[in-house]
Write a structure and sequence with these properties.
The protein is mainly alpha-helical and about 180 residues long. It has a domain of about 90 residues. About 65% of the residues lie in helices and about 0% in strands. It is built from four helices and two strands; from the N terminus they run αββααα. The chain has a two-stranded antiparallel sheet. Strand 1 and strand 2 form a beta hairpin. The protein is elongated, with a radius of gyration of 34 Å. It starts with about 20 loop residues before the first helix and ends with a helix. About 0% of the residues are buried.
């Protein structure tokens, strides 16, 4: 962390979401711990990559760098500048409506995702139940008995082979 202290483009921070930082965590929509976020402070992105030290270092070395933002327009390409300028021309009400609409889209995506996951879990349970029922039918069809007969036959075969060897050894000894 000391590496970035006073850095012009990098801020590394932490917040106790159960204590004094609770308001910040709510504003940033932190839903689990630990949560890592990066990017423009006004629009942070959730980090989804590796959580081990090497993975974090690799991400930091290859992905983290200053990006186009209101405070770094010099890093924007023409299309990004035009988009920012168009948004800056919107009234506060229009911006609020656009934000609300986008946030609703995200909330709807989350609702759909959760419903889809629940459906997958139901299907998974049905598959598990179906497999268990079919396996029970196979076992009830005599699998255990067939294995027992097979094992007994092997033992009988082994005993017969041992008896044959003993007879052969006795015959050789008599000669």
């Amino acid at each position: 962390m000391q590496k970035y202290e006073g850095h012009a483009d990098v801020l590394v921070g932490e917040s106790d979401c159960t204590g004094a930082g609770k308001g910040l965590c709510e504003e940033l929509q932190v839903q689990g711990y630990p949560t890592l976020k990066y990017g423009d402070p006004a629009s942070l992105t959730d980090y989804q990559g590796a959580r081990d030290l090497e993975g974090l270092k690799r991400f930091a070395d290859t992905e983290l760098r200053p990006v186009c933002s209101l405070s770094r327009m010099d890093l924007c390409d023409e299309a990004q500048r035009e988009r920012i300028e168009a948004l800056q021309k919107l009234s506060p009400l229009e911006l609020a409506a656009g934000i609300k609409e986008s946030e609703k889209e995200l909330a709807d995506l989350e609702i759909k995702f959760k419903a889809d996951v629940e459906q997958l879990q139901r299907e998974y349970k049905e598959l598990q139940d179906s497999k268990a029922k079919a396996a029970a039918e196979v076992r009830a069809g005599g699998l255990g008995l067939m294995r027992a007969v097979q094992a007994a036959a092997r033992r009988a075969g082994a005993a017969a082979a041992a008896e044959a060897k003993a007879v052969e050894a006795t015959s050789d000894a008599e000669l």
